[in-house]
Amino acid sequence: MPKLTALVLTTLLFVTAVTVSADGEAKPKLSDIAPVENFTSAADEKIVALQKYVATPEAFDKSARKLKRDAGMVAIFAQVIAEHDQDSPAKQSAVPLRNAALKLAVATTLEDATQSLKELKQAQAGKVTSGDVAMDWAQLINFDSLMNEVAVRNRAVGRAVRKMRRGLDQNARDEVAHDADILAVLAMVAAADTHPVKDKATIDGWKNFANEQRTAAIATAAAFRKNDAQGAKTAYTRLAKSCSGCHKAYRK
Predict the structure, then answer these.
(1) What is the CATH number of the domain that holds 173?
(2) What residue range is the signal peptide (predicted)?
């Protein structure tokens, strides 16, 4: 499997090995972000929410934006599970889970959403398997939904960084580290989805910002797990600056 040179590796915090995707882009080992079971549990959490959104016609009407976002997130987590370098029983049904989530994300009627959710639940239970793992990460989630999820997770991490000076218990630190793990994955999705870049000559800059967000998020998660308040502050400041820098350069 292709490796980056040692010189380039020194610029990627906590990412010790990479693969090369079909389009030639360097992609970190997913286990360097988090174990595969973390993404399985993250998908399960989103599926609980999705069931609430289609429980009644009223809930469906009120939750269109959240349904699109959370279904897209399940598609992302399923793709991560499918491509993860660690083994897991969830791998066998990850592709059907992704496909059902993608259908649910674009459902416009309660009937379609209910059917897609049924298929999603069957995949979650391992009753449907196989399928083509290959997928363009840019197609996993609507970009506005992606940015909404980034904002939610980013705010949670920022609040926790401020609380670290007074101390956070193990459970709280694990929870925010999980948010940072997901931010790292979302940065990978953003790197793949370059459609917001109007000047295609600046795509490399877009990807650089996304890669910086990924490595800063990984560093933030590691600091929380080590109960390193200063390290968390430093890494999160780096993450926040990469986000604001990207907005300044590309949100026009």
Answers:
(1) 1.20.120.10
(2) 1-22
Determine the Cα–Cα distance for residues 190 and 203; give it in Å rounded to an integer.
Answer: 11
Q: 49-58, 124-133, 134-143, 233-242: lowest mean pLDDT where?
A: 124-133
CA nearest to 83, candidates 8, 189, 3, 183: 189
Residues 147 and 236 in one domain: yes
Shared domain check, 118 and 149: no
- Distance CA(47)–CA(123), nearest Å, equals 11
d(CA 85, CA 127): 23
pLDDT, position 130: 83
Above 50 in pLDDT, residue 4?
A: no
Does residue 168 sit within a domain?
A: yes
Asked if residue 194 is part of any domain, the answer here is: yes
What are the percentages of helix, strand and coil residues in the chain, rounded to 5? Answer: 70, 0, 25
Whose CA is closest to 44, among 99, 106, 97?
97
- Same domain (yes/no): 172, 108: no
DSSP string, 84-122: -SS--GGGGGHHHHHHHHHHHHT--SHHHHHHHHHHHHH
Predicted confidence (pLDDT) at residue 40 exceeds the cutoff of 60: yes
- Which H/E stretch holds residue 139? none
